[in-house]
Here is the input.
Amino acid sequence: MKEDVTAGAVHITGPKGCGKSTTGARQCATEYRLQDPEGASLRMLAATKPSELFKAEKPILLDEWGEVPSLWDAVRNEVDRSDTMGGFILTGSSVPREEGYRHSGVDRMAPMRMRTMSLFESGDSDGSVSLGSLFDGDLEVSGRSSHTLGDIAFLIVRGGWPRSVRVDREYAQDVVMNYYNATIGIDAFRVDGRKKNVEAVDRLMRSYARNISTTASMKSIIDDVISRDRLVTQSTVEEYVDSLTRLFIIEDVPAWSHNVRSKSAIRTTPKRHLADPSLAAASLNMDGEKLISDMKTFGFFFESLCVRDLRVYADPLKGKVRHYRDGNGLEVDAIVELRDGRWGAIEVKMGAGDIPEAEENLVKLRDLVVDGGGREPAFMMVLISAGYVSVTEKGVLAVPIGCLGP
Here is the structure.
């Protein structure tokens, strides 16, 4: 990471428990854990005389810097003064309240979004099909994934949390449930210090889970929450959505337009997603067996799993994940677009029997873009749950998620 730093500090954000502190610590010579319950004196020093902390050997990790928001401006000033690259790593599991820091950090703080572990990172994908290589034109791919439906269901409910990945299989979902309960009961309150109706936050999460991987309107989600409790208002639910977004729990997928000047992407509803599909399963109290018994829900959760991995693999490529939907009813589940304009189109299907329908959608989108003067996609791909890597006569790749990698 040090070789890639182009700013005085790196700001790592992401949901709590995804591994930010561990990742930052591996790159640092000095660590300050500001959320440590016994660190009151450290937080006091950070708030009153941060220059004392900055005398330590660099790089310096300021873990959960949001506990002392004034550190943001202090680091920015130190970066200006010392004119060094990569001297600080700041981690944060939430966007702090605005009080205490004034400057955006532009040119000083390099943002880095961290997510839960992809299947490649957890060892559940062999990475035989590289997303980066596909963008480079290497479409001669092969591979096989032997995952069963039961395996995929387990990977969804286990999630990519480092702790749930490490524990024995029978305890993995317990880790996720503990995380979920802490999120709705503690973290949702701590993010802004405002009292929350825990049951309403839980209903909001369950509504998101029921609408995962769909373009459900925010109004329908809000109505879903307040219809069961007339004491909860629309503004209250909007506040809760903001809190969960600031905790990096809600992470919707925006719409994509092949015309950069088009307003259609802005006007199109995003797809609803959470930081990890296991949160959706936890909110609905679903284990792997229950998920398999409801294949429609399974399909939506599987798409969320694929979107999570695509985001992880796209980040090092400076890519963004979007979705496509137009007024004529054409939908494509995921578009990965790089800064230089290269793009790839991906449909997500549970089984090989759905590949022809997915292929038709992908080809339609390709033709629509090309006929409109846009560039050809670098690749078209259908992500499936298991089986062999293959290529259709129209050049569409069929790739099991257990074969996809960075």
